[in-house]
Amino acid sequence: MKRTLVVMRHGKAMPPALNQEDADRSLTNAGMAALEARLPHMLRLLQTDDGTVQIWTSPAKRARQTAKLLKKALKNNHVSLQKKIEPHDCLWEQDIDGFLDDLRTSKSEFVFAVGHVPFVEDIVEELVGASPSFSTGALGCMEVHLADADELTATDNARLLWFVQGPISANWKTMTQLQTTIAVTAEKIDDRRMAFIANPEDTETIHRFRTNTRTLRSLVAFIKPWQDTEQNAQAQTILRDVVRYTSRLRELDVLEQQVREDPESSPKLIALCAKEASAERAKVLKTLTSKKVTKLFARAMLLAKNVEWKKRYASNGLTQETVRARFDDMIESVSADLATLDLSDAERTHDVRKHAKRMRYVAEHNEDILGEDAVTIAKDMNAHQDNLGEICDARANIRLIDEFLLKDLSKSVVRDLNRMRDQNVTFLCDALKIEEVRD
């Protein structure tokens, strides 16, 4: 009797956990992603001759998960399949004789068998004399002629038709790590947004919301070379707008804090700053709860949790070296910007601060991919960010105070505002080491 037999090793599996049975180990997320991406390409050599394919699997969880992914790939390739995936204990027990008995009694002329090493290697060697080394997810196809007997005889023979090594799951591990980090950050943003809506008077809620939103935007910007172009642009645009909705409130909160910490601030000045911040907070709350922004925000969260990769990366994965190379390019660019930065250029200072902050967020959230030095780099970028942030905050304070001074205010408040303005101008002049006109 003639059979076409394809033996397959299960995909990349999780290491055993404490007190976990070996049979209960699952595929890693990267292992599943790698198989889903590569199986359609690996099966190109397959010729079923319009026969019905039967899928057998070891009862182990990682093998059953692999068999399901195999079934999906075969179905998408319009291969005729038996409805059920059949578990066979012999594949788990490494029982070659039992497996051949099952193969003889099978009514299907085409069988896929998902198992483990050493069985998948041993069965190939037993039948055809070849000794291929099966990586996780590897496939070996054989044409097998079995005699009607209980065990292998001289009349049994087989030939190896083709062999394909499995995908390098590490390339998909990098992608799944990036995706997980982005998805987790998106979930945090949603929580921060709801916390602000529930308690808008707590200045920390909007601060955390802004920080998480900027973090997500930085992570999305980082994967731009590898993510679907349209999806990346759409996500970045929405997140940029969300941050902008809260920018003025953040500036007002900073000014109010400075005023409250100044022992010379009068109650009237404190009340003025609190009133301005409260009015802006109400505006932000209305914006973030509007139907339009709620819909846009939901869209951004959906995009973040369902990253679509460019075709070549979806098919071949993304190496850790490629990710690190992009990060190194960012280090070089930001370092050059910091070295040549003219602090008197307000717009440029603001941009370089953003770039340093973006590097910090990327480094903090991707240490496993980027390496141990990512922590040190994040700390360095945080220091630069803080230094430039104080300069940017001083400029923002001066601008806000100038706006306040256009209002109809009491002489005492005007006097206090001018004193606060002088403080910020002095700080700015000292930081820039230049003489600026104070009026």
CATH superfamily of the largest domain: CHAD domain
**Estimated share of beta-strand residues:** 5-15%
Count of domains: 2
Compute the separation of the termini in Å.
Answer: 98 Å
Tell me how many strands there are.
Answer: 6
Q: Pairing-aware structural class of the strands and helices? A: alpha/beta
- As laid out across the biggest beta sheet, the strand order is 3-2-4-1-5-6
**Element pattern in H and E:** EHEHEHHEHEEHHHHHHHHHHH
Morphology call: elongated
- What's the CATH first level of the largest domain? Mainly Alpha
Secondary structure: helix percent: 55-70%
Protein architecture, described:
This protein is of the alpha/beta class and 439 residues long. It folds into two domains: 2-167, Phosphoglycerate mutase-like (Rossmann fold, 3-Layer(aba) Sandwich), CATH 3.40.50.1240; 171-432, CHAD domain. It has 16 helices and six strands. The protein has helices at 29-42, 61-76, 89-93, 96-105, 119-128, 169-198, 203-222, 229-261, 267-288, 291-305, 311-316, 320-340, 346-365, 367-370, 373-404, 411-432, and strands at residues 2-9, 53-57, 86-87, 110-115, 139-145, 157-164. Strands 3-2-4-1-5-6 form a six-stranded mixed sheet, sandwiched between helices. Strand 2, helix 2 and strand 3 form a beta-alpha-beta unit. Mean pLDDT is 91; it is low at 435-439.
Key traits:
single chain, 439 residues, alpha/beta, six-stranded mixed beta sheet, disordered C terminus
In short:
Helices cover 64% and strands 8% of the residues.
Please give the structural blueprint.
Layout: E1 2-9, H1 29-42, E2 53-57, H2 61-76, E3 86-87, H3 89-93, H4 96-105, E4 110-115, H5 119-128, E5 139-145, E6 157-164, H6 169-198, H7 203-222, H8 229-261, H9 267-288, H10 291-305, H11 311-316, H12 320-340, H13 346-365, H14 367-370, H15 373-404, H16 411-432
Parallel strand pairs: 1-4, 2-3, 2-4
Antiparallel strand pairs: 1-5, 5-6
Helix pairs in contact: 1-2, 1-6, 6-7, 7-8, 7-13, 8-9, 8-10, 8-15, 12-13, 13-15, 15-16
